[in-house]
Design brief:
The chain is about 40% helix and about 25% strand.
């Protein structure tokens, strides 16, 4: 008796491989990088649209931990959109508000009752406004989470530095999330 697959000859297998490769070649032109220079319907690329976004100052009280995060987030966003420079002729204004941060305990040492691992949580809301019309075209929120280990009770400065590094990583995630959400809006309009 013939087993399954033994009846397929070499020419049939070559035909299948050629068919898959041909189909791949035909659909290859359909895909393009989101942040590339390919023009959108209006003639601008996503990179051009992001470069035309003015990032407003993020409100936070002076001397408060959120003020450090607000400066960090604004710098990250400006770097993502326009390599750190202000846009020449902005078409959109991005306003970030409601920046909240906190710590959540993830793992607790059962012997001492002290936390071994904690998580820095940062949440923000943002709106994208078309400057010419004053119309809010996008209103959303996002978050970033980053964990950090507690090195021990005697190393409180190391613990503080680990927490600040985790907050920085969470803010970087938020900047990426906002960039991706705006890119999605510029490509799909939603």
């Amino acid at each position: 008796p013939m087993r399954r697959g033994e009846g397929i000859g070499i020419p049939k297998q070559l035909f299948r491989v050629a068919f898959v490769l041909g189909l791949g070649a035909l659909t290859a032109a359909c895909f393009q990088p989101v942040y590339g220079n390919q023009p959108l319907g209006a003639g601008n690329s996503v990179r051009d649209k992001l470069a035309a976004v003015d990032v407003a100052q993020i409100p936070a009280p002076n001397g408060h931990p959120e003020s450090r995060l607000a400066v960090e987030l604004r710098n990250d966003l400006m770097s993502e959109f326009n390599n750190g420079a202000a846009p020449g002729a902005p078409l959109y204004r991005l306003q970030v508000s409601g920046i909240n941060s906190g710590i959540q305990t993830v793992i607790v040492d059962v012997a001492s009752g002290r936390p071994d691992t904690q998580m820095s949580a940062v949440n923000v809301s943002f709106t994208l406004t078309e400057i010419a019309t004053g119309k809010v075209v996008l209103n959303s929120s996002t978050f970033g989470r980053a964990s950090f280990d507690i090195p021990g009770s005697a190393q409180r400065f190391a613990q503080q530095r680990a927490w600040l590094n985790a907050e920085d990583r969470a803010v970087s995630m938020i900047a990426d999330n906002i960039r991706n959400r705006l890119a999605s809006y510029f490509v799909a309009g939603t």
